[in-house]
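target protein:
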Amino acid sequence: MKITASYQPYLLVKSQVLVLFSFEEKPIPSEVIAIDHKLNNLVSIASRDEKFQAKYQELLLVNIGKGFNFSRVSLVGLGRRSDFSLLDLQKAIGSAVRFVQKKKVTKMAVVIPNLPAKRYPLQKVTEAMTRSAVLADYQYTEFKTERQELPNNIQELVLISSKKDKKIEKGILEGKIIAEAINHARDYGNQPSNKANPNHLVKMAQKLAEIPRVRCRVLEKEAMEKLKMGGVLGVAQGAKHPPKFIILEYSGRPSKKEWIVLVGKGITFDSGGISIKPSEKMEDMKFDMSGGGAVIGAVEAIAKLRLPLNVVGLVPALENLPSGEAYKPGDVLVSASGKTIEVITTDAEGRIVLADALHYASRYKPKAIIDLATLTGFCIIALGTQASGLFGNNAKLIKKVKEASEISGERVWELPLWPEYNELLKSDVADLKNSGGKEAGVITGAAFLIRFVNNYPWAHLDIAGTAWNLEEKTYLGKGATGYGVQLLVELMREW
């Protein structure tokens, strides 16, 4: 999508549809009132007939015929002004994009709403609009051979402002960088696992090494054996594709030796292993690498935004499959830290893999470690699909993650990690077991991970409920959401 700014009067901007936002207090925007008589009052009449009240995400499309540089006007409701936030604007423009897509529109012009600058900085407004438009326009069509029934992609978006300001161009640039990184993460998740295997994730990560100050290294199986990564190797031993351990380093402040480590679970397909999952919805387990995809996407955005800090992304990429060589319930694995793990279920493999990644993270003596993983179905039971579970060992870091969540709109909810939960992970034959059963299942997953953090500031995000949409949303389609990219970018921006 080509996105540009225009400082011409909106009547002079050429497009197929002109989009304006309105609040409930004033459903017909002043821009429309000023020209409605020239439109033979078509907009006000349609607004009255359709009972348009500018409620949140309410949409009205009016055909105005010839004589203008646009043939349609669309009004998009923002709800009550007192309830308004930038997140509402994001969802509203996303809804508008998906709405006009279905009307075969390929070029649209949007008037940037007049908002109080102190509360809503112009650059933030423009960035939010750009980001949401690009995300809403996304369609995963790689394997579609018949595309005539699909909505059009928006080829060109023009953001109209009455005053020229460099902040608008910067907002467009940064919004597009972030949105494209999120969409890349969505691609990684939506791709079927017969394409998006561990080696494919490696190729995607290696492309990022073309960005200045980004370095990509990959540990092969032999290197992992030397590092005694018994967790990764144990989980991967039943699969045909060998495991890969991806290391992405972005040196945005090379004079400093301080690192922030992002860790993402990269299970490119999770059958459950010997403890095989039910066949219903097993196809969704291609999304089990969403944490790893989010980390790769976040490093891409952070590097392209040239943020002045050092970030490393660690993604253990592998498959969890049953075979004659697969690891089994009752096995004991020796992790890279030396701690031994009794396998209760091979379907709790993510925490075993992350144990080695979290231990590897300590090589950087990090200022903080943040991991993302589709770790437990129990998180969906606890929080549904509205928020990710948040855990950690450092109050300041938890506060930073919550603040980034508020800015990004990618919700989190903190859950406890009291010492009593460790009792559920006690093993009779090893240092700990990989499952404490159904009781507090989302918490015991995090309680397992904290044993491998080595006391560095750490936050864990269980994104099992937020990594993909099962149903179409007005502003975002089905499939992978790219959850975590935006949150991590905002966290690093505020660092």
User: Anything to note?
Assistant: The chain has two domains: 2-161, 180-494. The mean pLDDT is 95. DSSP finds 14 helices and 20 strands in the chain. The radius of gyration is 24 Å.
